[in-house]
Specification:
Number of strands: 15
Number of domains: 1
Strand content: 15-25%
CATH superfamily: Creatinase/methionine aminopeptidase superfamily
CATH architecture: Alpha-Beta Complex
CATH class: Alpha Beta
Shape: globular
Helix content: 25-40%
CATH topology: Creatine Amidinohydrolase
Strand order of the largest sheet: 8-7-9-14-15
Order of helices and strands: HHEHEEEEHHEEEEEEEEEE
Radius of gyration: 17 Å
Number of helices: 5
Distance between the termini: 22 Å
Structural class: alpha+beta
Amino acid sequence: MTITRDEQLEGLRRAGRVVAEVLAELEGHVEPGITTLELDALAAAALAARDAEAAPPIVYGFPGSICISVNDEAVHGIPSRRAVAAGDLVKLDLVAVRDGYYADAARSVVVPPGAEEVRRLAVSARHAFGAALRSIRAGVSLQKVGRAIERSTRKDGFRVIPELGGHGVGGSIHEEPHVPNFPHPGVRGRLHEGLVIAVEPIVTSGSGEIVEDDDGWTIRTRDGGWVAHYENTLVVTRGRPLLLTAA
């Protein structure tokens, strides 16, 4: 989506605020013993209280209000009766729609005590997002954004998952352009003012190869390497981007 009117920006701000608030609320509930299905119910209730809806069930028929991926699961984990355990790395990935506007964000929660490498992995995803944010301006190539993410990740001693990346958002869940997490040779576009995108470094301690589970949704690493995910929706400007889903 490209913003052309002030009311569009206000609508996106409201949607982004919903996503940020609900994720912050959910993070406080991620503790040993709670099931991912219980977290999903909390997400649904929190969205309803804010006059918003979960977008994936509407657009794709996803069986849950929020994607919850644990440990070696990278994205699209289905909420279930699985109980969160001490030391787990839980990814909360929420796309909400409010008044026709979509916003998308993800957070990685290390359940105490959490191994040192797991904590470093979660921090690395945030580092990579920060590196991308510093590179994003109108006119900048998508390859440059991807290069910033990959360099940051490698500096921390981890890898990105090449097949997974960010995307345009705002008018639906997934829109053009694809926002790669490395300098993808097939992606040649540039950012322009008013473009709404979700930037989402997805970082692993393993090789970066992925497989899809038999459920048709969950994507995990082939070698069992754990994964961290950090994402926000933003608007491209001539200067610093406008973050719509920051807490």
